[in-house]
Amino acid sequence: xxxxxxxxxxxxxxxxxxxxxLPGDAGRIDPTQVxxxxxxxxxxxxxxxxxxxxxxxxxxxWVFTPNVITVPEGSEVTFIATSRDVIHGFFLPHADVNVMLxxxxxxxxxxxxxxAGEYPFVCHxxxxxxxxxxxxxxxxxxxx
Length: 144
Ligand code: CUA
Fold this sequence. Notes:
mainly beta; three-stranded mixed beta sheet; binds dinuclear copper ion
């Protein structure tokens, strides 16, 4: 009895106390109209405030658009991403980003890049014959 009660308590504390949870489901879109639906009609990297960026990203077999993202050191980057075909994944291990990209769903996740460098990301959900080639990188350039 104590074990399930303890686990439930731990779950409630992490979900509501520590605000840990699954990446937010920022919305739903028509998966057949991705290229016509804002913001995905204009994928890219956008500076929304000093040091804050939004990356509007579309995943499709077998490429991320954009797949090279350049931001300055110290940036906070919010990825807003979806899939235009099958289920993909977006895994950027250096910044603890790990989300599924589902057709019709918008994933939103924020990461910080305090140090210059190149941080690769990959699709980590099998999506077909060239799944292993589906990758990209965040290039964080020094501020100086
Ligand atoms: Cu996309 Cu695997």
